[in-house]
Amino acid sequence: MLVQPVTARPRQALWALGFRPFFLGGSLFALLALLLWAGVLVGALQPNPPGGMLAWHRHEMLFGFAAAIIAGFLLTAVQNWSGIPGLGGRPLQGLFLLWLLGRASWFLLLPAWLILLIQGAFLPLVALALARPIIRRRLRNNYPIVILVLLIGACQWLTLAGWLTQNETWQRRGVLAGLWLVAAMMSVLGGRVIPFFTRRGLGNLSPTPARPWLDRACLACSVALPLSYVVGLNDRPQPPMALLFAALALLHGARLVLWHDRGLWRVPLLWSLHLAYAWLIPACLGLALWHAGVAINPSLATHALTVGAMTGLIVAMMARVSLGHTGRPLQVPRSIGWAFALIQLAALARVLVVPFTSLALELSVLLGSGALLIFLWHYLPILTRPRVDGMPG
């Protein structure tokens, strides 16, 4: 039932397309989760979910927050790719309810097997909903997207299996492999939309030059990294892994140089995308240095990925997609530009300042929370009201 496309849109705008409930619910959840994490860091709160707060934090920011936004974006984009109406109405409500139950399941004193089932069912169902129109239209270029969603779901199952068996190694490998699979998806989708959005946003209507060799090289390296985490090649420094991380950093840097246009720095919806993607470079370089034997905390590189790249790209993409799919002009108020900037400052605090003072942890969380609060304040009415042009969606 969840995968049946709809031909008529529901009366409530919130359930018209996937981006609406999942952008709204995902960003609100991330805000609450960050505030809860801040309370734990300062000792003001002491919740006790199964497995502890650290396990909850690293699972939920990836498989709760990021997975929701990925679902919302892909369930909306697949309509454009296939020409088949996207998931809406009751099927979309059911999928969103399943995601919401997953977030609440940590604190409902449910049996462990039921928590695992609720949590682990979401991403496979998202992949199934995507696969139907993609296979029906034989959109072979989008088959990797479905595979990536399934692989992220497999990483969640590995993480949950580690939680269920109290196997810290499985938990860590599952989360880190999942993070780098999200980075792989960012590489695939970023390669499609960032140069396109940049050229269109600056009034350049010529086609984006195709560089398939660069895209394939990025995808190959990006997929190799999470597989290396699953098999344990990143449990301790390995010189060959330093070469792989360094190569991927160079590939991402080459992409950014080729996509660059100095006019983008005048447009918040553009510079936010480029700066977020740029965080993939220090994330890769930091781990390359760690594998090469440099005394660096790999957590710093991981948070360059999670705060700078992942959260930065999520907020930038939500801001643009929400405008485009509600028929509004692609212009944001100055406050949204500040939200983009706060994400960048949160990443800088978490990566560059934390080594010198632990207070930067709390500062980073508060800056990220401020960015999400600004986004919600501005986009809540946009996501819950009908399109301004009267079209369905």
Described by the principal axes of the CA atoms, the overall outline is globular
CATH class: Mainly Alpha
Distance from N terminus to C terminus (CA atoms, Å) equals 20 Å
> Share of helix among residues?
over 70%
Number of strands: 0
What name goes with the CATH superfamily? Cytochrome c oxidase-like, subunit I domain
Class based on secondary structure composition and strand pairing: mainly alpha
Roughly what is the average pLDDT, rounded to an integer?
Answer: 93
Strand content: under 5%
CATH topology: Cytochrome C Oxidase, Chain A
Largest sheet: number of strands, sense, barrel closure: none
Total helical segments:
13
Rg measurement, Å: 20 Å
Series of secondary-structure elements, N-terminal to C-terminal: HHHHHHHHHHHHH
Reported CATH architecture: Up-down Bundle
Poorly predicted tracts of residues: 1-8
Query: How many domains in all?
Result: 1
Pfam family, one: NnrS
Organism: Pseudomonas xantholysinigenes
Transmembrane segments: 22-42, 62-84, 104-131, 143-165, 177-197, 240-258, 270-292, 304-323, 335-353, 359-380
InterPro entries: NnrS
